[in-house]
Design brief:
With 244 residues, this protein is of the alpha/beta class. It is 48% helix and 16% strand. The chain contains 10 helices and 8 strands. An 8-stranded parallel barrel has the order 1-2-3-4-5-6-7-8, surrounded by 7 helices. Helix 2 runs parallel beside helix 3 and helix 6 packs parallel to helix 8. The protein binds pyridoxine-5'-phosphate (PXP). Pyridoxine-5'-phosphate binds next to strand 8 and helix 9. The site of pyridoxine-5'-phosphate (PXP) has 19 residues, from strand 8 and helix 9.
């Protein structure tokens, strides 16, 4: 069975847009869990544009399933993870100007490799398993193994952006080869980024896939599937007021 981890960053995006107390990520996490999600994923970004330190601390205390903290391998983030101890950390590359994570870690770059090795060691010293978000390349899977990762999360963005037909088939073939390599290395296999209700089906072909991290599509769907009830609730308040 493939585990579904729901990324709830965009609950916080909506909240932060207005500086309100709602929607509350802790409540959203609970609802995802009640619906059967196997885990909750949040990305604490350097600029705190959505999830905040307060959110991560509360989620660490309240998530009943698995809390996956995505973060860059910076000293600040490593100290936060060491202190609050999420169930697992996923190390991701981070650029301030990007809208969302744009690719996997540059695990072939010597300076990045050095920083990742130290980060994996520090997290392991604090008893925290580590997943590395990588592009679906054989060399990157092997590099992740050598870095001591427990898990790899394959970046599915190129697959999701490719047009259906041969371009998407080529991206799926890259994912398949990387998944086989990860399985052969004994790495736990996860995947994510850009997956939605029309392209997730391809993931069912990945050998050894244990976990998917999906955020934007689920939160977007929830906005539309919940809109009918939200409007009716507001109308109910207006009509009750009129009758008084
Ligand atoms: N996995 C990783 C490593 C990510 O950085 C993200 C986005 O925060 C996701 C999965 C989820 O991507 P999406 O929101 O496109 O489903």
């Amino acid at each position: 069975m493939i585990r579904l981890h729901v990324n709830i960053d965009h609950i916080a995006t909506i909240r932060n847009q207005r500086g309100t107390r709602y929607p509350e990520p802790v409540l959203a996490a609970g609802l995802c869990e009640l619906a059967g999600a196997h885990g909750i994923t949040v990305h604490l970004r350097e600029d705190r544009r959505h999830i905040t330190d307060r959110d991560v601390e509360l989620l660490c205390q309240t998530v009943q399933t698995t809390l996956n903290l995505e973060m860059a391998a910076t000293p600040e983030m490593l100290d936060i993870a060491a202190r609050i101890k999420p169930d697992i950390v996923t190390l991701v590359p981070e650029k301030r100007e990007e809208k969302t994570t744009e690719g996997g870690l540059a695990v072939g770059n010597p300076a990045v490799k050095k920083a990742l090795k130290a980060a994996v060691k520090k997290l392991h010293d604090h008893g925290i398993p580590v997943s590395l978000f990588i592009d679906p390349e054989l060399a990157d899977v092997r590099a992740a193994e050598l870095l001591g990762a427990d898990q790899v999360e394959l970046h599915t963005g190129d697959y999701c952006n490719a047009l259906p037909g041969p371009p998407r088939d080529r991206e799926l073939a890259r994912l398949l080869a990387a998944a086989e390599a990860a399985d052969a290395c004994g790495l736990i296999l996860a995947a994510g980024h850009g997956l939605d209700y029309t392209n997730v089906q391809g993931m069912l072909h990945l050998p050894g896939l244990k976990e998917l991290n999906i955020g934007h599509a689920i939160i977007s769907r929830a906005v539309l599937t919940g809109l009918d009830e939200a409007v009716r609730e507001m109308l109910g308040l207006l009509w009750d007021f009129e009758e008084e």
